[in-house]
Amino acid sequence: MFRLFRQHTRFRPPSFASNSQVRWLFSGLFSRKTASVPALYKPRKERWITPTMVVVGSIPVFCFVLGTWQMQRLQWKINLIDELQEKLQLQPLSLPKKINLSVIPEFIWRRVVVRGKWDHAHTMLFPLRVREGVVGVHLVTPLIREDGSTILINRGFLSQEHAENHAWDRPEDEVEVFGMLRTSQPRNAFTPDNHPEEGIWYWYDVNAMTEYAGGEQSNVQPVYLEQIFEGHAGQASYCIDHGIPVGRPPTVDLRNSHLSYVITWYSLSALTAFMFLRLLVNRKQSNVRRLPRYG
């Protein structure tokens, strides 16, 4: 009896699944567990060539090209000024009776000497000029030469007071004038139009000035000179005070601002190149980004 009882009450441990089932169970648990754990760092794939990178990267190249071009322009302007200065050192030419207009550009800034009488009736005043702090005008008067031909002479600066009172020096006898050959000077966008019919002039238009002085029918040639003044400052002040036009100094006054352009473009090229490198470094550092931690 007791033996029978022991047989029915004997402890039997529960049966477990097979080894393969156990491995499947635990592997599933651990795989699902570990799959949900994020990595601290994860590489992010980005395109390096983007429209923004292309635009930003091309700016320093573009600025460098412009700086190099301005460097070439600077050298060209320096050579031109040196060439014109050499022309000014030559002996003055005597203008021939018949002037070949086609060769005048080759003699620009060349010193010349002419003789004749002033045609005061066709004097032209160009306002808004300043010399030594005095506001005034430039006085352009035709000169009738010995052979009867006429050319245009810019006699120089005249104070506003003498211009308004028409109280400037008007020689009637024959004069000898030393000047420099010039051509029409281009005006900028802010220069008003000339009104020859009203006697209003703002910029030197040789053809219009020639027509105003009588034109071809009066044997007026489109030849324009600027009278030279080689006196000192005291003489210039005396002339201004007494209504005597003061000519220009015998120097080349071509504007040469290419050096400032060179500095500007090269500086912009260096600055934008630095900005582009900083952009590359920042993109490289952000290529590996930190993901948020899960608790």
Automatic annotation (TrEMBL):
Name this polypeptide is given: SURF1-like protein
InterPro entries: Surf1/Shy1 (IPR002994), Surf1/Surf4 (IPR045214)
Protein task: Probably involved in the biogenesis of the COX complex.
UniProt topology in membrane: Multi-pass membrane protein
Annotated TM spans: 48-69, 259-281
Cell compartments where the protein resides: Membrane; Mitochondrion inner membrane
A Gene Ontology BP annotation from the UniProt entry: mitochondrial respiratory chain complex IV assembly
Species: Armillaria luteobubalina
Keyword Transmembrane part of the UniProt annotation: yes
One GO cellular component, as annotated: mitochondrial inner membrane
Pfam families (alphabetical): SURF1 (PF02104)
Keywords: Membrane, Mitochondrion, Mitochondrion inner membrane, Transmembrane, Transmembrane helix
Chief location: membrane
Family: Belongs to the SURF1 family.
